């Protein structure tokens, strides 16, 4: 018969939730790991601020492009159709809204991590890692969705090519 007990001396624990004693141990942040975490927090804040600025510029460009198309449609008559620009405007705003949340969570991770390390506050450290988890979970889900859209686009491309070949033969 095989032994299904979890060995507490084993370095590999398959699921911390299945072994509550793993939470009884204190995690110690050494000076070296603290410095690594401080540097990680600085980069997280830098990248998130850069991302927020980029989303602001993107929003500005979208609004300016929409205003340009609005002015061009009234100036040139039927050269531009502002109503036709609305789907592009709505899509751009949706993209901005989708990207703001993970960028903000990355920023909150960086600020909470810096504060937790400075004050040696475990609750704030936990909060910072919750924001990091949200960030990566969202990015992971978005990657899966985008991969699915790429696959659907590829299938659509193949179907279009196949139908074009059939139409040529007919």
From TrEMBL:
Segments crossing the lipid bilayer: 46-68, 88-107, 138-167
UniProt keyword annotation of Transmembrane present: yes
Keywords: Membrane, Transmembrane, Transmembrane helix
Top-level lineage group: Bacteria
Record-given protein name: DUF5362 domain-containing protein
Organism: Sphingobacterium daejeonense
